[in-house]
Amino acid sequence: MEKNSMTVWQFFVLTLSFLAGTSFFFVPGGLIAVAKQDAWMVPIWAGAVGIIAALLWLKLARQYPGMSIIQICTKVAGKPIGSLLAIMYISYFIQLTVFITRNVGDFMKQTLMPITPLTVFHLMFLIITAYAVMKGIDTIARSSELLFIIMALTFILIFCMALIEWDWNRFQGSFRLNIWETVKETRYIFGFPFLESVVFLMLFPFVPSKVKRSFILAIVAAIAMLSITTFFTIGVLGVTRASHDTYPLFVIAQEVHIGTFFEHLESTVALILLAAIFIKLSIAYYCSVLGLCQLFRITSRFWVTLALILLISGLALGYDNVVENIEFSQRYDFEYTLLYSVFIPCLLLLVSWIRKGRGKRREESAS
C-alpha cells in the first residue's frame, strides 16, 4: 500500500464530492417524478440509512486498523474464501467505474456533442483519470480540494441567479406522499449515491485520525445539499418540467440570464459536472487498481491502470442508450449494492466476533 496520507479536510472533500457531485445532476429528476412536491424529503431518509451503513463500515475498519477491505477479507475469511470476496469487491469497484464512465458519455452526447461517438468521451476521460491514479491518492485529494471550491462557488452563483424564476405555488399539494410506495419506487437512491461510498473502505487507511467524524459529516453535508438541490429544482422548474428532464439542473442553467451579460451558462455547468465526475471516477478507478495490486501483490500500478482503460471503456458500451442505463439503476442498483455495502461487511463482523469469542474461551481454559 502507498505510504501517502490525506488530511481530514481532504478526506471530507473527497467524500462529499463523491456523494454529492454527480447526484446533483442525475438524482433530482427521478425523485421528483415519483414523489412530486415532497421529493426533497427522500434524500433525508435515504441518507439516514447511509449513515447507519457508514457506522457499520467504520466499526469494521476500526477492528482492523490500517487495512483496506481487500486485506480485511483475506484476513477474516482466510485465503480461499477471502480472495473470492476480495475479487467480488474489485469487480464491484470496476463496475462502478464503468457506470460513472457511461454517465459522462451519455451526458456529453445528449447535451453538448450528439454526433461524437461515446467511445471518444470514454477514452478521453479514462486517460486523464488513469494519469491521476498513477500519481496516487494524494494527487487526487489535492485536485479535489481545488475543484471543490470552484464547483461550490459556481453552484451558489447559479442558484442565486435562478431564484428569479422561483414560485412557491409550485409546492401546492405537498405532504401527501405514500411513504411506503415512495420508498419502494425511489429505493435506488439508497444505493446511488449513499451505499456506493463503501469504496471508502479502501481509503480509510490513508487518513491518520478523525476518520469517523470526517466521514459522517461529509454524508450529512451531502444529504443536506441533495435535499436542498431537489427543493430548489421544484421551486424553479416545477414538478412537471423537472420530472421530464434527464438533467434538470442543466436546464435551469440554460434558462438563467440577467440582461445580455449572464446567459447561456450551461457550458459552465457542464464543465462543473465533468469536474465532479472526474473526482468520483478517480476514486472508483483508484480503488479498483489498488484492490488488484493488494490482492495479487503487484508493486507497480502502471500496467494495471492501463489495462483497465480498455476493459472499462469496453464494458461502458453495454447499455444501448441513456434510458436503459437509468432503468437498470432504478431497478437493480439498490439490491446489487446492498450485497457489498451491508451483507458482506456484516458477515465479516460476525466471523470476527465468533473468532474472538473462541479465542477468549481458549485463553480461559488454558489459564
Fold topology:
Layout: H1 8-20, H2 23-26, H3 28-35, H4 42-63, H5 69-77, H6 79-111, H7 118-135, H8 137-162, H9 179-185, H10 188-194, H11 211-237, H12 239-244, H13 248-255, E1 257-258, E2 262-263, H14 266-296, H15 302-315, H16 322-366
Antiparallel strand pairs: 1-2
Helix pairs in contact: 1-8, 1-11, 1-14, 3-11, 4-11, 4-16, 5-6, 6-7, 6-14, 6-15, 6-16, 7-14, 7-15, 8-14, 10-16
The CATH homologous superfamily is called: Amino acid/polyamine transporter I
Instruction: List segments where confidence is low: pLDDT < 50 over at least 5 consecutive residues.
Output: none
Distance between the termini: 39 Å
How many strand segments?
2
Give the percentage of residues in beta strands: under 5%
Shape: globular
How many separate domains? 1
What is this structure, in a nutshell?
This protein is an all-alpha fold.
Which keywords apply here?
367 residues; mainly alpha; Amino acid/polyamine transporter I; two-stranded antiparallel sheet; 16 helices; 76% helix
How would you describe this structure to a colleague?
- The chain is 76% helix and 1% strand.
- A two-stranded antiparallel ribbon has the order 1-2.
- The longest helix has 45 residues.
- The two termini are 39 Å apart.
- A hairpin with a 3-residue loop joins strand 1 and strand 2.
- It has 16 helices and two strands.
